[in-house]
Amino acid sequence: MGETMKAVDIKGGKGPATALFINDATPKPVPKRGEALVRIKAFGLNRMDLIQREGKYPVPPQAPSTLGVEFSGTVESLGPAAGSGNDNDDDDDDSFKPGDAVFGLAYGGAYAQWIAIPTATLLRKPASLTWEQAAGVPETWMTAAQALHLVGGFSEGGTALWHAGASGVSIAGIQLSRRAGAAAVYATAGSDVKCGFAERELGAAHAFNYRSGDWSRGVLDTTGGRGVDLIVDFVGAGYFAQNLAAAARDARWVMLGLLGGSKLPEGVDIGALLYKRVRVEGSTLRSRDLAYQRRLRDRLAEYLPDFESGALKIFIHAVLPMEEIVKAHQLMEENKTRGKIICTVP
Fold first, then answer.
1. Same domain assignment for residues 167 and 265
2. pTM assigned to the model
3. Burial class (CB in 10 A: 0-12, 13-18, 19+), 187
């Protein structure tokens, strides 16, 4: 029988936050060729973790059952060397060695003491970043970069609207939009406090409280009726009509979530999709192949100097020990956070 470790598990395979528990008999992973075994120091929570916990997320076939897609830690060992006859040798990065401080993206398995992870999705942790900061970067910042550049095709001088402006992805996206030369970046959020955060801390030109009225009218008024060039949405059906109203001609609209449902209300007029020439595209990161994720890893590496200088800011709302994972999930479910929730690993 192999070695075991502590990892977060779910009673019955799915359920509410209270179904989460620490399983100290979880098999410790063994790295395959092209993988590193990383002793995890911290991991970040993401909205998909809550959906997966409830049994409603389409988990990629290569993902372990353990939750978690981003982490930081130390390389403990490496799998067999490249050149072993496998056709995927190009996915290897043989520059890592035991003892390296790293952070990275995973298909799953980060809520644990160890993870076996392709080196193609690892980055070296800058000394200036704490374990907690580094653990909250990969999923959120790669997703934002993907939406902005690879899917959204954002150009300098354009305008962008990021919904859920105080969420991890939009905190990254607002900053990356400004870094890419946006003329103006807008956001929506569910409270005046969050809107103020998006404006003061992230540099949004204006953030609209969606509880206070029709935010699409606010976008149009602020842009002189033009609308915005890029919309990044996590809500889906509940925002469809307003997104369409707020979209500029030839806008790109990237859908990253369906938190507000997937079925359009009766009577929604989709005519503006045609005459505005709006391009709507759904996108996920977790289902992408390793080569695609490596491209995003390389783009994220370009941002590291800006993290170190403070030009790009990492916001952490709370840090909890892994043993308090139930509390961590409940905190995320309250939708009051401004930044990441991070768990440290014993």
1. yes
2. 0.91
3. buried
